[in-house]
Amino acid sequence: AQSVTQPDIHITVSEGASLELRCNYSYGATPYLFWYVQSPGQGLQLLLKYFSGDTLVQGIKGFEAEFKRSQSSFNLRKPSVHWSDAAEYFCAVGGRGGGNKLTFGTGTQLKVEL
Amino acid sequence: DVKVTQSSRYLVKRTGEKVFLECVQDMDHENMFWYRQDPGLGLRLIYFSYDVKMKEKGDIPEGYSVSREKKERFSLILESASTNQTSMYLCASSPGSEALRSGYTFGSGTRLTVV
């Protein structure tokens, strides 16, 4: 079965500081990996995705993520956080073996201090 | 852009009521999904559908049913609402042929309170 672990429930960073959100997945074959962001009271917006090729993927809003097969990880990074990045972030995994279903992590709540 | 529209942002219903949550997408997507979101639990899949009149159970289908009579509309039904179904409900859709390459498009959610 596919699964995702986001070990950090809450993270607080200062505006302008760098950010890394952790994601570990379990999947039997090459996974499809996603990061979504959810602003308060809103649905989820896709930040970036990985399914093959270059293991460093660029997304919207200045975010990037790196797929590391040996560590079963897909961590999200941003070099300089803006106050508007405060939101909840979800990592998700899927693959052909699981049909078209995505399995989501429990989320990381990001707080940005001014 | 694909739009996924959930008919209600907030709903308050009484215990035992039959509740309908509606979701409509405008991009001819084959796949549609219903998730519930609870603090500390993330998103959990309730039901999904790959085509009209087709449905499959997700991870937590108990107490729920779904209907997909038209391709663009996917309804979630709480047969007899209970307080433990108080939650945020999120609908999503994706294209059929490259569903995972595209990712899902989500609606804005319906926050349901059962009293």
Description:
The complex is a heterodimer of chains A (114) and B (115). Chain A is an all-beta fold. In chain A, 0% of the residues lie in helices and 51% in strands. Chain A is globular and about 45 Å long. Chain A starts with a strand and ends with a strand. Chain B has 115 residues and is mainly β. Chain B contains one helix and eleven strands; from the N terminus they run E-E-E-E-E-E-E-E-E-H-E-E. Chain B has one helix at 99-102; strands spanning 4-6, 10-13, 19-25, 31-38, 42-49, 56-57, 64-70, 73-78, 87-94, 105-106, 110-114. The longest helix of chain B is centred in the last third of the chain and has 4 residues, at 99-102. Chain B starts with a strand and ends with a strand. Classes of the chains: A mainly beta (114), B mainly beta (115). The A-B interface holds A 6, 9, 32, 34, 36, 41-46, 49, 51, 90, 94-96, 100-107 and B 4, 31, 33, 35, 40-45, 48, 50, 58, 90, 92, 94, 96, 99-101, 103-109.
Short key terms for the protein model shown above:
heterodimer; A: 114 residues; mainly beta; 6-stranded mixed beta sheet; 4-stranded antiparallel beta sheet; 0% helix; B: 115 residues; 7-stranded mixed beta sheet; 3% helix
Summarize the SSE layout with pairings.
The complex is a heterodimer of chains A (114) and B (115).
Chain A: E1 3-5, E2 10-14, E3 19-21, E4 24-26, E5 32-38, E6 44-50, E7 56-58, E8 64-68, E9 73-78, E10 87-94, E11 103-104, E12 108-113
Parallel strand pairs in A: 2-12
Antiparallel strand pairs in A: 1-4, 3-9, 5-6, 5-10, 7-8, 8-9, 10-11, 10-12
Chain B: E1 4-6, E2 10-13, E3 19-25, E4 31-38, E5 42-49, E6 56-57, E7 64-70, E8 73-78, E9 87-94, H1 99-102, E10 105-106, E11 110-114
Parallel strand pairs in B: 2-11
Antiparallel strand pairs in B: 1-3, 3-8, 4-5, 4-9, 5-6, 7-8, 9-10, 9-11
